[in-house]
Amino acid sequence: MIPLRDENPRRSVPVVNIVLIIVNVMMFLWEVSLGPDLERALSLIAFVPARFFYSPVAPANILSIFVSMFLHGGILHLGGNMLYLWIFGDNVEDRLGHARYLLFYVACGFAATFAHAFMNPASVMPAIGASGAIAGVLGAYLILFPRARVLTLIPILFFITIREVPAIVVLGLWFVLQLFVGVGSIGVADSAAGGVAYFAHIGGFAFGMLLVVLMGGTRRPPPPRRFSNDDWPV
């Protein structure tokens, strides 16, 4: 299933979400500009689990986690991530507020990276992509808006249909798929697993579900105030 949009109105402009998307796109354009030097650049600046466990508190290794959250392995990788972030991130930001949403996003990215690293401590393949942080956003959305309707493209054999599906179905199936493939990939080399960090998705999603509750996201925001003539100064 491919989500196209959600039917979930928001109260504010998702400034942080828009900036995150812009930064991801700009970083991808920078990657493209490197041409044949890209692979060498990623080996130096991207997060590598084996290098992290060799020196986990080194500032360069900590910085590499943050940088890797804005790097992507191709246009489809970028496009898929940004689609999910655009559809589901705005409402999570609306509930948490701009500053808390930014902290939430970065924290989920770090948690997802740690989950991937602990499951693949000997990996020397750079782990890049915003999908771990976005998985946290999806987990938060599932907690906050399980009954929101999501317009979804559903391929069935040779046919394609578009239906509105509850978020709990769309995101629940997404997580089950990540869990199923992730468990099946345990002990498999990165290259054989397609280079997908499934446990970053799993860890980010679970962490996002927990963190959004701890950050007070489940508390209903106050209704918008209705002004009367008595509220205006004379």
Assign a percent range to the helix content. Answer: 55-70%
Oligomer: single chain
* Beta-strand percentage range: 5-15%
Which term fits the overall shape?
Answer: globular
Helix and strand content put the structural class at mainly alpha
Which descriptors apply to this entry?
234 residues, three-stranded antiparallel β-sheet, Rhomboid-like fold, 9% strand, 9 helices, mainly alpha
Describe this structure in words.
With 234 residues, this protein is mostly helical. The protein has one domain (10-142, 168-188, 202-218): Up-down Bundle (Rhomboid-like fold), CATH 1.20.1540.10. Helices cover 59% and strands 9% of the residues. The protein has nine helices and three strands. A hairpin with a 2-residue loop joins β2 and β3. It is globular. The mean pLDDT is 88.
